[in-house]
Amino acid sequence: MSRKHRHDRQHWIMEIKEHYGCAHCDENSICCLTFHHIDAKSKNRKICKCLSNFSKALIRDEVNKCIVLCFNCHAKVEKSLIEIDLNKRCYINEHFQIAKFKKKEKKVSDDT
Ligand SMILES: [Zn+2]
């Protein structure tokens, strides 16, 4: 696989993280964000490893089982200190487009 190809996927994954931001707080710096598997049993592979080895479709499948959290919130979820809002889970559609979830307390912008 070419270097460019791999770079594209890395970029895509960063785009996904940036798009969603932390599902629990307002953190949206990519370096602080991680994918959290909603159902630990469905965890097949680490997304970072998918970058070099798996197709975009496989990455999408995996991302769709996840919710984006910052490291702080992720740690709290692991300790059951907070509950995550499953409405904010990731969803990449069949065209590999990143679907939006409705952000809380954001006024509807008129970008129609
Ligand atoms: Zn957070």
What is the helical fraction, as a range of percent?
Answer: 25-40%
Nearest-angstrom radius of gyration?
A: 14 Å
- Order of helices and strands, N to C? HEHHEH
How many E-type strands? 2
Give the SSE layout.
Layout: H1 3-20, E1 33-37, H2 47-53, H3 56-63, E2 66-70, H4 71-78
The protein binds zinc ion.
What does this entry look like structurally?
The protein has helices at 3-20, 47-53, 56-63, 71-78, and strands at 33-37, 66-70. The chain has 112 residues and is mainly α. It has one domain (3-88). It has a two-stranded antiparallel sheet. It is globular and about 40 Å long. The mean pLDDT is 84. The structure holds zinc ion.
Characteristics of this structure?
about 110 residues; 4 helices; mainly alpha; two-stranded antiparallel ribbon; about 35% helix
What would you say about this model in short?
The chain is mainly alpha-helical.
